[in-house]
């Protein structure tokens, strides 16, 4: 005899569209075979609400698709646990937050992409603009294209974790093709491609200009063992030189670098970026 152990434990969060519904599995093993049930956060058992929520014979917590008028806050915006019990003991799953999003009237969105003007040799940043803004959290950028070719990260072009496209050391070749971003609604799985946008390249002006930070982060939170992206984009004439420092130690980086996180640095990484043009121009410091 031994107590129950989860073989399939529910996740922390499930968000679904009312037009799609959701199924959440839970399974456990033990000797004897454990009994499974679903409870709410307060410990009360989940009982069937027709066309709203039910527990299937295989112990799957099931939310069928529903019309907006059938939204039930006590079921569709609720916290649940799966419980497994046998003679060897009882275990409770992590707390699961279920959120149903009504998209009957808001299942469409628009994607815009604006042209950008960049000095030759500088960095172009293209960003998908999602309208209406309140659907942003459900829209993900899945791909960027240049002309008919899908863009992959390389030493000069990269897609950041927030979906922006960054093109470094721009030249005339970058303005010959249209750029587009492809997005997906993670609730409805609908996809949409933006209209084309172009990178316009201009020559450096005759007058020197001190560096100016156009894009940076003041702090960053990331999971342990994940890759932390710390972007910094600056303008100036001549073009700025990028240097990263941490704890007084300098790191060379063109636009961003990845710093391996240890458990003690899993919340934020204080770093600084210094930009220098020439001895006759001031030094800008971007603390991130």
UniProtKB/TrEMBL annotation:
The lineage of its organism: Eukaryota, Metazoa, Spiralia, Lophotrochozoa, Mollusca. The keyword Disulfide bond applies. PANTHER family: FIBRONECTIN TYPE-III DOMAIN-CONTAINING PROTEIN (PTHR44170:SF56), PROTEIN SIDEKICK (PTHR44170). One of its GO terms (biological process) is cell-cell adhesion. InterPro entries: Ig-like_dom (IPR007110), Ig-like_dom_sf (IPR036179), Ig-like_fold (IPR013783). Keywords: Disulfide bond, Repeat. The keyword Nucleotidyltransferase does not apply. Residues 4-99, 205-288 form the Ig-like domain. This is DSCAM.
């Amino acid at each position: 005899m031994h107590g129950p152990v989860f073989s399939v434990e529910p996740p922390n969060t499930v968000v679904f569209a009312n037009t799609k519904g959701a199924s959440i599995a839970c399974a456990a093993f033990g000797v004897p075979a454990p009994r499974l049930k679903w409870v709410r956060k307060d410990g009360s058992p989940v009982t069937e609400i027709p066309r709203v929520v039910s527990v299937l014979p295989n112990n799957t917590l099931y939310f069928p698709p529903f019309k907006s008028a059938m939204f039930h806050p006590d079921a569709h915006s609720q916290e649940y646990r799966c419980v497994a019990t046998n003679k060897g003991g009882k275990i409770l799953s992590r707390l699961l937050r279920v959120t149903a999003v009504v998209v009957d009237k808001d299942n469409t969105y628009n994607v815009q992409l604006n042209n950008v003007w960049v000095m030759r040799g500088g960095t172009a940043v293209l960003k998908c603009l999602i309208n209406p803004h309140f659907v942003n959290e459900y829209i993900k950028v899945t791909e960027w294209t240049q002309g008919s070719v899908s863009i992959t990260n390389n030493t000069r072009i990269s897609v950041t974790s927030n979906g922006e496209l960054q093109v470094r050391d721009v030249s005339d070749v970058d303005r010959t093709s249209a750029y587009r971003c492809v997005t997906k609604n993670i609730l409805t799985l609908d996809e949409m491609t933006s209209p084309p946008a172009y990178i316009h390249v201009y020559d450096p002006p005759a007058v020197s200009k001190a560096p100016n930070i156009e894009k940076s982060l003041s702090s960053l939170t990331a999971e342990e063992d994940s890759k932390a992206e710390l972007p910094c984009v600056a303008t100036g004439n001549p073009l700025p030189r990028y240097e990263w420092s941490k704890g007084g130690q300098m790191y060379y980086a063109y636009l961003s670098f990845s710093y391996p996180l240890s458990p003690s640095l899993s919340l934020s990484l204080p770093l600084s970026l210094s930009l220098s043009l020439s001895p006759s121009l001031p030094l800008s410091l971007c603390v991130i």
